[in-house]
Specification:
Radius of gyration of chain B: 20 Å
Number of strands of chain A: 10
Largest interface: A-B, 26 and 29 residues
Distance between the termini of chain B: 42 Å
Structural class of chain B: mainly alpha
Oligomer: heterodimer
Chain lengths: 249, 223
């Protein structure tokens, strides 16, 4: 009996070891801003990228991913929702940053009893919880703070903010109807029909929301191919259909 | 279940097995050292081993990252030898092991403290060698404690979150364990179904571990 248990343990152990060392086909490890999840999954689903490369994507807030890269995470490519990280990661960069899309900022509601307004809906937001990414670290939160400040409503709204750790986390709180209002990207609106736009922030109220691809491995054909596909016309159509805007020249 | 969720379950199991395989002997060594070392050193070792139990897990993870990250001396040397710990599944094993060791050490310490020392002395007077004393007296009495330690360690390490996500990050298929997959899915609108499945898997593992410990305990009493 003891011997059987022991041999079972040994075989289980060796199985785990061997499964750990079996090399998969070529893989590309992408760290991506959480707001890119719907579009990257759609592009993967439509087989836009190389079929013989397995693409692994770790989603998170751009700031958290940038920190992990800075600490040595083995990502091949970083897709950031904020170009400022390119400067922070200067010494890790292995090629030119390529901007591939932009986004816009909206005040949205998870309840359908409101309509799109021309003016910032200060009266609605002054006494309600407003969900947004962290205004100090998560790009969507940083942009939202800039926009609220430039409209002169930061003082009034900031005390009600419910700050989450990524753009997608804000959307999840809203779609679960755990909060009534939030500030999200136009791309979040496009894929979540339960969210209603309430107010579109004017484009000049915040820095341009540029998505940028930062290669982290020198002369890597599979990374380059991924960037090429990401900036192709086919991908561009998918980006547009999911609420993103074309990259600025 | 999605392929990513299956990967997360398999990785959690793998982390659990490795954490016990590495952590249990280590805990045994720590408990033994605590008994043979001079008191101040034993106290210091015991406190160091138990520290992860009371520290915020993210602190443990961050300290491990500073020690084992590719930019550190130790992590850099390991990297030179081709061993990556941080942001790798091995990092998940290291984090879980460090988090599980306090539980295993506590369980082993308790088992050891209840050993009736008189028995081994009696055996010695009857001519039993130290090896025989261990085989016939110490080990059978210690065994339930060792099994409890292994099961506690396994259950802890398949569910460890804070230190793991800090040291190993959350890369699907590579370092994403069950809890980090659930954390990830909570940020996806419509991820509720998959979350439920992973929660049920976690409950099944926890129940399995408890039932196994019950079974071993009963078996141990029958001796």
């Amino acid at each position: 009996m003891k011997k059987r248990v022991l041999s079972l343990l040994v075989s289980a152990f060796s199985m785990f070891v061997s499964s750990a060392t079996v090399a998969k086909s070529e893989t590309l490890l992408v760290f991506a801003a959480s707001s890119l999840r719907p579009v990257l999954e759609a592009l993967k689903g439509r087989a836009v990228f190389d079929a013989n490369v397995e693409i692994l994507v770790s989603y998170g807030s751009s700031s958290q991913l940038a920190r992990q890269i800075q600490l040595g995470a083995p990502a091949d490519l970083f897709l950031s929702a904020d170009t400022r990280w390119a400067e922070l990661l200067q010494e890790k960069l292995a090629g030119d940053a390529v901007n591939f899309a932009t986004n816009a900022l909206y005040v949205v509601t998870s309840h359908s009893d409101h309509e799109l307004q021309d003016q910032f809906p200060f009266d609605l937001l002054a006494d309600e919880r407003v969900v947004v990414g962290r205004t100090r670290s998560v790009p969507v939160g940083i942009y939202a703070k800039e926009a609220l400040q430039s409209l002169g409503v930061w003082q009034g709204v900031s005390k009600n903010l419910l700050e989450t750790h990524s753009a997608q986390a804000s959307v999840a709180v809203l779609t679960a109807r755990q909060a009534r209002f939030g500030i999200v990207y136009s791309s979040d609106l496009a894929v979540n029909p339960s969210l209603q736009p309430l107010f579109a922030f004017p484009e000049d109220a915040h820095r341009s929301i540029d998505y940028t691809a930062l290669p982290l491995v020198h002369d890597d054909p599979k990374t380059q191919s991924f960037i090429d596909k990401l900036t192709s016309e086919t991908a561009g159509d998918v980006f547009l259909s999911l609420g993103f805007l074309p990259a600025k020249e | 279940m999605s392929p990513e969720a299956v990967d997360a379950v398999l990785l959690s199991l793998r982390v659990g097995v490795f954490s016990v395989a590495i952590g249990l002997p280590a805990s045994f060594g720590i408990v033994w050292l605590c008994r043979v070392l001079p008191r101040p050193a034993a106290k210091a070792l015991s406190i160091l081993a138990l520290l992860p139990l009371v520290l915020p897990p993210v602190v443990t993870g961050y300290v491990l990252l500073l020690m084992l990250g590719p930019n550190s001396v130790l992590g850099g040397s390991l990297k030179y030898l081709g061993v990556a710990i941080a942001f790798n599944w091995k990092g998940a094993v290291v984090a879980s092991t460090v988090m599980a060791i306090p539980l295993m050490v506590r369980a082993l310490q308790l088992a050891w403290e209840t050993l009736p020392l008189g028995l081994t002395h009696v055996a010695a007077t009857l001519g039993a060698s130290p090896v025989e004393q261990f085989r016939t007296i110490t080990w059978p009495l210690l065994r339930p404690g060792v099994i409890t330690a292994a099961i506690l360690g396994f259950a802890k390490s398949i569910g460890e979150f804070g230190a793991t996500i800090t040291l190993a990050a959350n890369i699907p298929g590579q370092t994403q364990t069950i809890p980090s997959a659930i954390f990830d899915l909570m940020q996806i609108p419509g991820g509720e179904r998959e979350i439920l499945v992973l929660c049920l898997v976690s409950v099944a593992f926890a129940l399995g571990a408890l039932l196994a410990s019950e079974w071993f305990a009963r078996k141990g009493n029958g001796l």
